[in-house]
Structure of 23S rRNA (Uracil-5-)-methyltransferase RumA:
Amino acid sequence: MKQCCPSEQLEVEVKSLNEQGLGQANYHFPDTEKGKGRNLKLEIPKALPGDKLLVTVPNARGRKRATLTYDRVIEAAPSRIGGYELIGPQVGGAPLEFMAYEYQLKFKRELIQNFFARADFDSELVEEVWGMEDPYHYRNKIELSFSKEGELGFFAQGHQYQIVDWQKNILAPEIFMRIKETVQSWQKKWQIAGYDKKSKEGCLRQLLLRQGHQTGEVMVVIFAKEVSDVYKEARQDLLIRMQAYDEVKSLMWIKNTEISDRMGADTIEVLAGSDYIIDELAGFHYRLYFDTFFQPNPRQAQRMIHLVSDWANLTEESRIIDLFCGVGTFSLPLAKRAKDLVGIEIIEQSIESAKRNARDNGVTNAHFIARDARHGLAEIEEEWGQANILLLDPPRNGAGGKIMRRIGRLGIDKIIYVSCNPKSLVQDLVWLREFGYKVSKVQPIDQFPHTQHVETVVLMSRTQ
């Protein structure tokens, strides 16, 4: 029987961060009797470029790569401000939490510049990243998972079954932590089992919390395998506990029998309040349902909306296409200053929300259609005519070549691209070169402090 190599403590230096925000380090074992050395690639949560770390690697000489937590910091990177020793498994929500904020902004600008330079765009166009004055507690939505052992938190980084109980609160508002602890105490009192992904047993699956940044309204959603009537007394106790929070305007119990971790909805029960909450962004009111996509950092999103409006330089004759419009976050502010606007989105629920949000805000010149991007653009060109401005805010993987070529053939004078992924952003922008478009402005905005993500807004103009 082949014996496993023993664990070893190694000293390593972190050279870079990968796309998940994990520190990357290599360790070279010297030549063996067979005349071959061995390289071990390590991915280390909460590690920063320049850190010299002590790590314990199980089966160190018998593997090529490993993801693990460091034991301690031997020599800290200049950017490090804490976390010199870590205890237990880590979660991926804030991989840069120990990097000083000015270094985070520098790292994100350089990340974008590198992608632009590799694609032969002028990297000097990338402006300094717009940071936040107070880059904490900015998230308006958080999703936690119940474990069969009683934890309520996030999956450990690199583990699809282990849940780390949420104890720290640097990204979400303080009220989320208090509600989490109330729900966790309620679960333990009534001994309602958390869901086990392996055995598919247990009842409670996820806890969703979202808050209106301007209104303060809070939504609390329990996702479970069973309907709430099975737990009548427990449900009544949960209602009483939530009444202690004046901010809670929506309490729901959603039956979810999905095999995957997706927050599906077989049935929706409103236990208290409504099935939505209200928030305000850039002077417009939006209804937020449990599955509504809404900007996770409203403070920075508002700055981004103002930037897009300024770059659009709208007049009463402006005609706008808002591609991947979602629930109308950009559509409504732009439509108010233009002749008319058409929003395109493949998700019908989002389009219905966009129409409702337009009605709620008295916007009558914004029209929305539920189509995939390519067919939606073709339909608009045929039935609506030529637009002056196209705005697109695609998913993380970008729009793709077929859609970008379709955009290029429209010949619209001005294109504004909002991206949450600089890699897919640059890949998409390359397609517009052959249609005579040139990048004129690039403004990064830090929507996600303490993470590896960064939002980028790009202005392209047709030069031929």
Q: What stands out?
A: The CA atoms of residues 35 and 116 lie 42 Å apart.
